[in-house]
Design brief:
The chain has two domains: 6-179, no CATH class; 185-471, no CATH class. The longest helix has 33 residues, at 76-108. It is mostly helical. It has 20 helices and no strands.
Length: 472
């Protein structure tokens, strides 16, 4: 089940809300949490019920593991090790087993049969979330939760279950038991959800059609400008797809009294790759920073070890996204430029005008998205050659002109939505007092209602509705 489906919008959510808020109004927190847990488990099991056993396994492993870490202090390292290994083993089996089998077959010229595995959606997200809980208990960064239903709710909470953001237990520990649902939070959550729905259904899906059409053209039939246009379209698609989902998750969480941290901060206004990764998928970047990079020594070590730490993080970041060499190459690609900015040319880069630094960052980001998009490195290399005029193709052709004319409004809307114009306008008006501010809040309600209706029209009339990050 996805947030942008009619089943979710007109069946799941309308049934959940009255069931949940009935017990909120009579101040039965344990029952309202139980209702939210049952609906969250149903949400995950919908479509493929057997996946619920993987979710329950994750809940039990992390709940029991945290208790052992808390109670058996002489053996807390062993308890942590076993818990993390069990988490990683499940993730490895479902996500990476066939990748290693295929590569072993290729390297040693043997024929081990691949496994018949159906990939459970969201497994990378809830596995990392569960591990962060037990690691934080081990570090004494958060208190152990002795109520198994609260741990189950934390890991399976449906708003952020499938595609993040990755939520730390410490950020929601208090709210699981003591949160206050307010009318303001609920209304802000609805507006945020509708904004995310707009990003996904109206912007990401429409620009995604352009990206699919352009990047499906054989490399030999492309032009230089067409490849760049396709890269821009895909960059917009993946941003609005993923940030739209995050907006919907944050909005839904707020409706139920949870305040999740932001996951995106206008990444395409970045002026360096370092800045880009501070603005893109923030919850994943901070997870790798806090649980891999800093424990390895971070930057408080020799230069060689610091380079090693960054390399480990970015190889793992690429591999986290998928069991494919193109994802590993994507992680290594960004690693090289991050190392370059940190140790080689970062200070020189800062001396350039802002618009040149922005162009530098955008070019590198777009090339990175081509590597990310392609299912094989051969295709990625062919497209990158075309981007820089090494593919024996024209600079521009009729298909480029056609694509620009055909999708001009989609590109324009995506561009406007990717820069913080509306954010600045909103902050400016919120800082005012009186009639203008009151009118602004009324307009936001009308805006949410209109974009919800528009989104429904797009959902009903369109068959193109993928969530890119569901496969991670």
């Amino acid at each position: 089940m996805v947030f942008s489906s009619l089943n979710f919008l007109f069946l799941f959510l309308p049934i959940l809300l009255p069931c949940y808020f009935l017990f909120v109004f009579i101040k039965k927190r344990k029952i309202s949490n139980f209702v939210l847990l049952i609906f969250s488990l149903f949400f995950y099991a919908y479509g493929t019920p057997k996946f619920i056993f993987i979710m329950l396994f994750s809940i039990i492993v992390n709940y029991v593991g945290a208790l052992f870490i808390y109670n058996d202090k002489p053996y807390k390292k062993l308890a942590l090790f076993i818990t993390v290994i069990l988490n990683i083993s499940v993730l490895f089996y479902y996500k990476y087993a066939n990748f290693f089998i295929e590569n072993i077959n290729n390297i040693f010229n043997i024929n081990i049969n691949t496994l018949d595995i159906i990939f459970p959606i969201g497994i990378s997200f809830f596995t990392f979330q569960g591990m962060s809980y037990v690691i934080d208990v081990y570090r004494n960064d958060t208190k152990v939760q002795k109520n198994p239903l609260n741990v189950a709710l934390y890991i399976s909470l449906f708003p952020q279950l499938i595609a993040g953001p990755i939520v730390r237990y410490s950020t929601v520990a208090f709210e699981i038991e003591e949160r206050k649902e307010t009318l303001n939070d609920c209304s802000e959550g609805i507006i945020r959800f509708c904004t995310g729905l707009l990003k996904k259904v109206i912007v990401a899906n429409t620009i995604g059609i352009a990206a699919k059409e352009i990047l499906s053209v054989p490399p030999s039939s492309m032009s230089v400008t067409l490849v760049w246009l396709g890269a821009v379209a895909y960059a917009f698609q993946i941003y609005f797809d993923f940030s739209g989902y995050s907006d919907m998750a944050i909005g839904l969480g707020r409706m139920f009294g949870f305040h999740f941290l932001e996951n995106f901060n206008y990444p395409y206004i970045s002026k360096s790759i370092t800045e880009f990764w501070r603005r893109w998928h923030i919850s994943l970047s901070t997870w790798f920073r806090d649980y891999i990079y800093i424990p390895l020594g971070g930057n408080r070590c020799t230069k060689i070890k610091n380079i090693r730490n960054i390399a480990v993080v970015w190889i793992l970041t690429g591999f986290w996204h998928g069991a494919s060499w193109n994802f590993i190459a994507w992680g290594v690609y960004f690693m090289l430029f991050l190392l370059g900015e940190k140790f080689v040319y970062g200070k020189l880069l800062e001396k350039f005008p802002a618009f040149l630094r922005h162009i530098y960052a955008i070019i590198l980001i777009l090339v990175g998205w081509i590597i990310f998009y392609c299912s094989s490195m051969d295709t990625a290399i062919a497209l990158i050659k075309n981007m820089f005029g090494f593919g024996k193709i024209p600079f521009i052709n009729n298909l480029t002109v056609y694509s620009v004319i055909e999708y001009k409004f989609e590109f324009l809307i995506a561009f406007i939505g990717s820069v913080p114009i509306f954010k600045y306008i909103s902050e400016f008006i919120k800082a005012r007092d009186g009639f203008i501010k009151e009118c602004f809040y009324c307009l936001r309600v009308i805006y949410a209602f209109i974009i919800f209706l528009l989104s429904i029209v797009f959902i009903v009339s369109s068959t193109f509705n993928p969530f890119i990050y569901f496969r991670f």
